Amino acid sequence: MSEKVIMIDKDNFGEVMNGDKLVLLDFFASWCGPCKMLAPVIDKIAEEYEGKAAICKCDVDENNEIASEFAVSSVPTLFFIKDKKIVDKIVGLANPKVIKTILDNNI
């Protein structure tokens, strides 16, 4: 995993969500095949959008209270959060171009 990706847990969740950057929050599970396929895409996006957006991952098995707060029912699920509001969401394996378009439209 890229060092640019922020791993979200209950200790840093509030700090990241209250920041002034657009947040891409990837809910995943270690046992999820599509999540494993999406992981390198998220890593690359984290490198490309460094300084422009906070690219984050949250393991649903380790942080089920955060996943519940977002009503995550399947993984991967990507949330795009700006000014503490969800501006877009993708459920399932996402095309990198679609992810980048949503990021670009909200930065």
Task: Please provide a brief summary of the model.
By secondary structure, the chain is α/β, with parallel strands linked by helices. It contains 4 helices and 5 strands, in the order βαβαβαββα.
What can you see in these coordinates?
The chain is α/β, with parallel strands linked by helices and 107 residues long. It has helices at 13-17, 33-48, 64-69, 96-106, and strands spanning 6-7, 22-28, 53-59, 77-82, 85-91. The chain has a five-stranded mixed beta sheet with strand order 1-3-2-4-5. A hairpin with a 2-residue loop joins strand 4 and strand 5 (85-91).
Secondary structure: helix percent: 25-40%
> Could you tell me how far the N terminus lies from the C terminus, measured between alpha carbons in angstroms?
23 Å
Counted beta strands: 5
Shape: globular
Give start-end ranges of low-pLDDT stretches: none
The helix/strand order is EHEHEHEEH
* Main pleated sheet: 5 strands, mixed
Number of helices, counting only DSSP H or I runs of 4 residues or more: 4
Strand content: 25-35%
Overall pLDDT confidence? 94
Find the structural class using helix and strand composition.
alpha/beta
Specify Rg, calculated over alpha carbons.
12 Å
Strand order of the largest sheet: 1-3-2-4-5
